[in-house]
Queue: 2 jobs
Job 1
Amino acid sequence: LLKTVVERGTGSETPSDGAKVAIELKSMSTGANASATTADGPVELVIGDDAGGEGLRRVLMSMTRSEVVRVRMHPSLARPPIVAPSDSPDTLIEIELRLVSFEQQRALDQLSPRELIEHVGRLKNAANAAYAAGDEKESACTQYERAQRVLRLVVEDDLTAAEVSSWRGIQLSRINSRPAYPPALCGAARLG
């Protein structure tokens, strides 16, 4: 993954996981079959929901508002619907994008236990989708490990009865979903 700044952005704030971003995207692939979604206006997505893949997520989290960058990435870091990897696994994808705007989610330490549980659920769903798509190491492990770290922030004493039930449901799903998530896949830190 190589990012080159074409035009500096404004301010110093960068989006983090969970931020809603609007980007303008254009493909300039070195491979004949790679493509990018181009639209008349900005494309909106949530960082961390696996749209565009891990490569796009990393790039967006390092950008400021209005920044324009050119990015070269391996196809394994690209995901539809924003960036579709080429047929050749060795052909690098090159894109140019501009971060139009973003709406930052509150920091994890500022979320209520209920909001943390909802966030973990979204991360787990994204990880399950990545795993089902066959993206075992790159995206699935990243999502599962991120969800596991967030899950540790939930303190059962601060939860209502309904939230405890939901939290225990997520904990139980760690056991129930093991067949869909091989233990050796990402090591000890895993969610399900």
Job 2
Amino acid sequence: LRGNFTDGDVTLHRALTVIEKTYGSGSPRAVQPLQLLAGNSLASKDFVAAQSYSQRALELSQKDMGLNNQVYESLRLAATVYTVQNSYDKAQPYLLRAVDVGEKLFGNEDYRTIAPLYALCDVERHLNNPTETEQCYRRLVSGMETIYGASDPTLVRALTEYAQSLKGVGKTDEALKVEQRAELIRQSAPKN
């Protein structure tokens, strides 16, 4: 398809039609083409279509399937539809659920749980929820340290944002320590 979303959409709609004719319109087998259609719509900035496809994918992925990777991916996709539009209040419930499902499926210190947690922290920051933001970044940094190590350069941005969240709840001394740690990691990181 090489970046041609129109051709891709035509193919995905054909696949969706075949699935619906074969298995019925409510079949969870339709989730993957719906997710792909939502992704194409996002890339084309057709947010109404992206929202519609992502919601339908989420509904079908939850149907008779319990918690699974498709539910997790559908929640993340639904949240992304809103975050790219800066509709953080609408993205928040999907991210909260994605983190919860991720923890149940993969554990709380797995990169697949950390990814929506990172997005959730950003959403909380945009919603100006200082206490929730600070707690979220605390969890995020802990998980990232477990995955990447306590001095990995991947932590710098999360530590910097965590320090800002600490300032937001009046913990300036702790924020200063976190900023110093981030700077130390930044300075010791290999230069390209």
